[in-house]
Amino acid sequence: MFWRNLSLTRAAATFFSLPPRQALGHRSSRTGGCLIPNRESSGSRYNVPPSAEFVARVSGISTMAKLPYRETADGLDAAFVGVPIDTGTSNRPGARFGPRQIRAESALLRAYNSGTRAAPFESLMVADIGDVNVNMYNLKDTCKRITEAYRKILATGCIPLTMGGDHTIAYPILQAVAEKHGPVGLVHVDAHADTSDVVLGERISHGTPFRRCVEEGLLDCRRVVQIGLRGSGYSADSYEWSRAQGFRVVQVEECWFKSLSPLMSEVRAQMGVGPVYLSFDIDALDPGFAPGTGTPEIAGLTPIQGVEIIRGCRGLNLVGCDLVEVSPPYDTTGNTALTGANLLFEMLCVLPKIKYY
């Protein structure tokens, strides 16, 4: 068994060193019994998810899309990074296991987006850089650790694609993002506005990140949209504070029974050419589609609408994205994490400089 595994490791190492089209098993010809790939790419070498034609999906160490693991973001254009916390949750825990389960379910991802013909792995150098080493006993210290980690990532010029973790993480991430880019626009997809001031006496939780961001000047409030908000509230207008800051609030009732492509045309115009951060809470989706989350609300968005929102961000100056609040213990099928993995892939496909066929 050891030697079989060693052989597989060597095979995988050889695979990852191949040019993209060769590794993916693109059209080829046979000469003298050898498989000769057509070299249709420029010769530049990028990290590419291995094809299941050659590498079994169930094999190997679990990374996002089975991409190579890297210690740092140096030399990367985009990186998948996990922030495994749920110490900011107010209801059901388990989001600390989100990054791990998203990675496991991401083994099904392939190199091209068949819907949009995006070729992210022919455009950007991408890898999985592991998880932020969070403090499970101290949320404030965890926030400091997150900010410090993202400062280092952003300093390399890399765009982070984050796997949460509860939504608290958006606050320290945006601290680092705004340090580099200044106040950013925000596309926030969620069942909840996450703009509470104090929860149980605490100012930092998954219900408060965007209130803190506004207070610290991290957001360009004229370029903030919140999509999918719903559920019962503590007042007749739960989103009054958001509107007062200048946010565009799109409650879920405005989304029912329709395509969100027209909405996203308006959002692109609102965002303009400035830097934009995309934050997607999986509970924006209806719990019938994504039950594995901490604070589910009925009558939510469909996965199709979630994809429409992300694809509608194509052309924006995206400087970071996150997918948060996947709680695997509440979905033993793995479908919530599978959906999260695919939404993260869609985010990768709309980053600046992505090639489309």
Explained architecture:
- The chain is an alpha/beta fold.
- The protein is built from 10 helices and 12 strands.
- The protein has one domain: Arginase, Chain A (3-Layer(aba) Sandwich).
- Strands 5-3-6-11-10-7-8-9 form an 8-stranded parallel beta sheet, with helices on both faces. Strands 1-2 form a two-stranded antiparallel sheet.
- The protein is globular, with a radius of gyration of 20 Å.
- The N and C termini lie far apart (42 Å).
- InterPro entries: Agmatinase-rel (IPR005925), Ureohydrolase (IPR006035), Ureohydrolase_dom_sf (IPR023696), Ureohydrolase_Mn_BS (IPR020855).
- Its cofactor is Mn(2+).
- One of its GO terms (molecular function) is metal ion binding.
Main CATH class = Alpha Beta
Structural class: alpha/beta
- Please give the order of strands in the largest beta sheet: 5-3-6-11-10-7-8-9
Distance between the termini: 42 Å
The CATH architecture term is 3-Layer(aba) Sandwich
Family: Belongs to the arginase family. Agmatinase subfamily.
GO molecular function: agmatinase activity; guanidinobutyrase activity; metal ion binding
Organism: Xiphophorus maculatus
InterPro entries: Agmatinase-rel (IPR005925), Ureohydrolase (IPR006035), Ureohydrolase_dom_sf (IPR023696), Ureohydrolase_Mn_BS (IPR020855)
Question: Can I get a quick summary?
Answer:
This is Agmatinase (putative). It is built from ten helices and twelve strands. By secondary structure, it is of the alpha/beta class.
